[in-house]
Design brief:
alpha/beta, Formyltetrahydrofolate synthetase, domain 3, twelve-stranded mixed beta sheet, four-stranded mixed beta sheet, globular
């Protein structure tokens, strides 16, 4: 019996082409004006080149998924496979992904470079330090933290209230011990001890600004508008009050240039930015997406976790900021995950279970219903596992047919682009049918903040309403009175359920959305609403992935997946 190669083994045996050859597929000239090589297989596109590109009538495909489970869904894998499949049927396609975070890579989720024969390479570099973008974001963020405390140390001309500093520090690792800390405990003159804490880098407002900026000037302006603290008489203090936007932008000037790599089939992949969708807005950079749209006929991009989180934020936040809209949405589902939503434990998922699959289908139904609320065409992709039976596949296909939704069985994990040709054809058909006039946001900018939150809770999560106390109402009132009431909403909650209880699988109803905290992201131009027990600094599992990651005798990385 032949052994199945691991993702890293498949990636290591890939026959990569020089990045100049990959870029030639989308007509990027091999010259210093267009891109800067970062080794033989990675490049950064130059902003001057991007600025000169002309707009094209390209098709944008958003890949999202059902509610995630430990059984796996394969959203990134499907995105890569679909882009390869589109190229296989003669369409010029680019896949646009987020950069992986070191937190999950050494934690529980693993990397974010796809899997099997639907990967982006070089996998080890992409999943680790890549081109250093995350390090640049971390440094820029923490520079602002240093400038705040330095300003207070040297006399506090701005009258910043040390007890009302809202700017935390960040690090790109899962370290729960840093969630709440005490700083300034040394014996230096003018030191004022205070409470502080760390978020993970992907939850940083700098990361959000990085991904939601249209160019360098826009980036600098947004950084300047970050609310860092309040004065002792309750007035906001911004990053620009410390002249922080200039040096922070300097640290980001190279990071803001999109990274280009390749799929295993040597098709272009733009990988740039990486916010999580459970604690941030979960989409890659506007610059990357818009660049891809100018360079190709079809752009495949993904948004984090299930459609209730990533897709909603892509449509209500990113599409507003970028003035774009998808031509088609792909909802990725696995039979394994749907059976888990139907009550099957992880150890029993390999067995055929039509009853459990039927019980799990409401989760898929709810995601389909939610996408349709935005007026978009959609296709369901069944990410195939070898344990899936013909009867189980038929059940989902028949179910989707009754709903009037196209569905494709996808074998990209084992076959690459060949395994998504049917999906690619369905996507092309959906793009042709799409009427851009039908697209609509879930809520208007003019809607009050509480009403926006309630609309998401009821319409997307199936909640009966929201739980909000007087403290939260006061936070929201303060934001609205400061003139930020027109901002969209970025909800932070568990990715494992429509509710805030990760144990509630399927499509639960009758639950409410408890709001724990509201944070203003005045630079990124949205309001973060933290719900339930979700943490903006994740912790590591009992046995983290780091336990298995090492170098072998050949100096090769083992354990990265």
């Amino acid at each position: 019996m032949s052994t199945v190669k691991s993702d890293i083994e498949i990636a290591r045996s890939a026959k990569m082409k020089p990045i100049s050859e990959v870029l030639s597929k989308i007509n990027v000239p091999d010259d210093p004006v267009s891109f800067s090589p970062m080794g033989r297989h990675i490049a950064k596109l130059n902003l001057e080149f991007i600025d000169k590109l002309k707009e094209k009538n390209s098709n944008l495909i958003l890949v999202t998924a059902i509610t995630p489970t430990p059984a796996g869904e394969g959203k990134t894998t499907t995105s890569v496979g679909l882009s390869d499949g589109l190229n296989k049927i003669g369409k010029k396609s680019v896949v646009c992904l987020r950069e992986p975070s070191l937190g999950p890579s050494f934690g529980m989720k693993g990397g974010a470079a796809g899997g099997g024969y639907a990967q982006v390479v070089p996998m080890e570099q992409i999943n680790l330090h890549f081109t250093g973008d995350f390090h640049a974001i971390t440094s820029a963020h923490n520079l602002l933290s240093a400038l705040i405390d330095n300003h207070i140390y040297w006399g506090n001309k701005l009258n910043i209230d040390p007890e009302n500093i809202v700017w935390k520090r960040v690090v790109d690792l899962n370290d729960r011990a840093l969630r709440s800390i005490k700083i300034n405990l040394g014996k230096l003159k003018n030191n004022i001890p205070r409470d502080d804490g760390f978020d993970i880098t992907v939850a940083s407002e700098v990361m959000a600004i990085f991904c939601l900026s249209n160019n360098l000037n826009d980036l600098e302006k947004k950084i300047g508008n970050i609310t860092i603290a309040y004065t002792k008489d309750k007035k906001p203090v911004y990053a620009k009050d410390l002249n922080a936007q200039g040096p922070m932008t300097v640290l980001l000037k190279d990071a803001i240039r999109p990274n280009v790599t390749q799929t295993l089939e040597n098709n272009p992949a733009i990988i740039h930015g990486g916010p999580f969708a459970n604690i941030a807005h979960g989409c890659n950079s506007i610059i990357a997406t818009k660049t891809a749209l100018k360079l190709s006929e079809y752009v495949v991009t993904e948004a984090g976790f299930g459609a209730d989180l990533g897709a909603e934020k892509f449509l209500d936040i990113k599409c507003r900021k970028a003035d774009i809209q998808p031509n088609c949405v792909v909802i990725v589902a696995t039979i394994r995950a749907l059976k888990m939503h139907g009550g099957v434990e992880k150890d029993n998922l390999k067995k055929e279970n039509l009853d459990a699959l039927k019980k799990g289908l409401p989760n898929l139904n709810k995601h389909i219903e939610n996408v349709k609320k935005f007026g978009l065409e959609l296709v369901v992709a069944i990410n195939h596992f070898i344990t899936d039976t013909d009867k189980e596949v038929k059940l989902i296909k028949d179910h989707c047919s009754k709903l009037g939704v196209k569905v494709s069985l996808c074998t990209h994990w084992s076959e690459g682009g060949k395994g998504t040709e049917d999906l690619a054809k369905n996507v092309v058909e959906a793009c042709k049918k799409n009427n851009k006039k039908n697209f609509k946001y879930l809520y208007s900018n003019e809607m009050p903040i509480l009403k926006k939150i309630e609309t998401i809770a009821k319409e997307i999560y199936g909640s009966k309403g929201i739980e909000v106390d007087d403290r939260i109402k006061e936070q929201i009132k303060k934001i609205e009175e400061s003139g930020f009431d027109k901002f969209p909403i970025c909800i932070a909650k568990t990715q494992y359920s429509f509710s805030t209880d990760p144990k509630l699988k399927g499509a639960p109803t009758g639950h409410s959305l408890p709001i724990r905290e509201v944070r203003l992201s005045s630079g990124a131009e949205f309001v973060v609403v933290i719900c339930g027990a979700i943490m903006t600094m994740p912790g590591l599992p009992k046995v983290p992935a780091a336990d298995s990651i090492k170098l072998n005798n050949k100096g090769e990385i083992e354990g990265l997946f």
